[in-house]
Amino acid sequence: MKSVTAQDLVKTYGTKKDVVTALNNVSFEVEQGELFGIIGPDGAGKTSLFRILTTLLLADSGRATVDNLDVVKDLKAIRKRVGYMPGRFSLYQDLTVAENLEFFATIFETSIQENYDLIKDIYQQIEPFKDRRAGKLSGGMKQKLALSCALIHRPGVLFLDEPTTGVDAVSRKEFWDMLKTLKRQGITILVSTPYMDEASLCDRVALIQTGNILSIDSPAGIVDNFKPTLLAVRANQMYPLLLDLQRYEGARDAYAFGEYHHLVLKSGFNEAGVRSYLDRSAHEGVEIKPSRPVIEDCFIALMKQPTGAAADNHQPSA
Amino acid sequence: MKILWFLLEKEFRQIFRDPGILRVIFIMPVMQLILLPNAADYEIKNIHITVVDNDHSSYSRQLISKITASGYFKLEHYSTNYPGALEDVEKDRADLVLEIPPKFEKQLVKEDESTVFMSVNAINGVKANIGGAYLQSIVEDFNREVRLKWVQFPRFNPQPVIQVTSANWFNPLMSYKQFMVPGILVILVTMVGSFLATLNIVKEKELGTIEQINVTPIRKYHFILGKLIPFWVLGLLIFTIGLLIARVVYGIVPAGHLFVIYVFAAVYLLAILGLGLLISTFTATQQQAMLISFFLMMVFILLSGLYTSIDSMPAWAKMITRFNPVTYFIEVMRMVVLKGSGLRDISGQIFTVLLFAVFLNGWAVLSYRKRA
């Protein structure tokens, strides 16, 4: 069963002269109980997409359903069934932890006791601070409270808009563990994030860039689709090396990637060719090794393709 | 019902948790109501006068002491020549210059006639006007005394004379405070009612909490009632405190029934809260809301008949005052507090303000959207 569908969603902002396209014919489907990641840089259109799906924003054209309910016509029914955690902490800072949770339980016409089992694992971590005002919590605790509040009415679909932005590495890992637990309860989870490394934690991901979906696949599938040879190259002087790599005739792309540079080769070129090319320049301590592509490499490759080609080549495989 | 109740509980909790808001709600109005009516007074006192006495006679001295004894004037300088006195005016030390010509007394006695010269510093129009009029009446009074001394009046006036005696109804002592305190109270209630409600909603927008609320199945009217009711209650509370202060500090006991005042205040607060709600739907930040409220408040105060009489405004301004809810409340307050008007007397005002309430709230509810 499809839990969320989007069909040719278009959303533009601004007036005639200065139009910004936030979403450009976005279509995708999310299965029931799936952990679906929407991965893209800032300004890619992730928040607009989430706001349309949670009935807070009207799309210019296109259709979308959540739990088989239309986001325009059945918005009241949808609001009862979705949990939404905006990117910014949006709970009442001057109410305590317990009061916030009780407040959201009440306006969803339920009680904390009724769905306590669902939030127990998360809420127990902040329960010692339940009489503290939400504004005085640390970032990680705020996020746990926000997740508890979004879950208190046992939603069928959970929308998390950049939940891990601005959260430390340990809390991020904890948070993804929590999502996995929730997934086991059968809740469909849509999560957006600008961090490519989090993509591998999702069942399927959609890579999105300036309102266009570049690819929808499982994280492994996306990586498998990366066909060209990828090399990791380093030298003592990294910046001149990068400039030389970008000038290389066999380079489809070269970019900095951690302590190495990643070099994507055109077909017909190989590692030996690169080595001999670099030997001709005065680089010291050159090290070249084949590298397994990660999501970020795929994203960069997809980003540089003409958008039409991206849509054609990467139809949803699921 | 349960949801609404919970919303109210939450709202009151938030209000009472914010010491800044509490101060604004309770301490500021009390301070203002105690200080403002005592300071902002129509009566012009302390008019600085410089006298140029070229005569130095007993009459000129009598005139001068009569002026200073009136209590309105302060003898700033006793100058010997007019240019010196004018310098006082130029340096803003004197509001009025009175020049008594040489041979003032002699002319008065011999020729039954003399002149004095008065020049007025008209930079502060109100002070100049009233000061000039006061001085003139003092001089006239002095003139009468002199005539009484020198001229034997016939038993009947040779010309017919109409003598005017007057009685001040509803405010027999023409007490300025009886007139101002109810008006200032109205302004305070208006400010608290509209500002606080506006800022409260816009704050939810700014903090993003409204986003989280909007995605819930909460009903629009629940949310709006949850915002209106707390400030309606607070408005009435402040109004009550204000009436108590008026009674304790100024001894103002409404001539009419308190019930009448409260009926009107209840309806009035609905209208004002509707206005606040409307502003909040059209603004995105507290700053914008503040500026708009501030601008409206200026118009409300100056065109409400609080300080200046509406009857003396030009026709177009009178039209504007008809669209100003504050006007009606000030009218009603003065009618009920001073004159003792009953519900029937103010039914017109109640009806008009009710229309305001329906219109403003209706507009606000229609333009409040849970989605963009």
Automatic annotation (TrEMBL), chain A:
The keyword ATP-binding applies. InterPro entries: AAA+_ATPase, ABC_transporter-like_ATP-bd, ABC_transporter-like_CS, ABC_transporter_ATP-binding, P-loop_NTPase. Residues 4-235 form the ABC transporter domain. One of its GO terms (molecular function) is ATP hydrolysis activity. Keywords: ATP-binding, Nodulation, Nucleotide-binding, Transport. The keyword ATP-binding applies. Belongs to the ABC transporter superfamily. This is ATP-binding cassette domain-containing protein. It comes from Hufsiella ginkgonis.
Automatic annotation (TrEMBL), chain B:
Belongs to the ABC-2 integral membrane protein family. It comes from the Bacteria. Pfam families: ABC2_membrane_3 (PF12698). InterPro entries: ABC-2_transporter_component, ABC2_TM, ABC2_TM_bact-type, ABC_2_transport. This is Transport permease protein. Keywords: Cell membrane, Membrane, Transmembrane, Transmembrane helix, Transport. The chain crosses the membrane at residues 179-202, 229-253, 259-279, 291-310, 346-366. Gene3D superfamilies: abc type-2 transporter like domain. GO terms for cellular component: ATP-binding cassette (ABC) transporter complex. It is found in: Cell membrane. It is a multi-pass membrane protein. Its main location: membrane. GO terms for molecular function: ABC-type transporter activity. Residues 146-371 form the ABC transmembrane type-2 domain. It comes from Hufsiella ginkgonis.
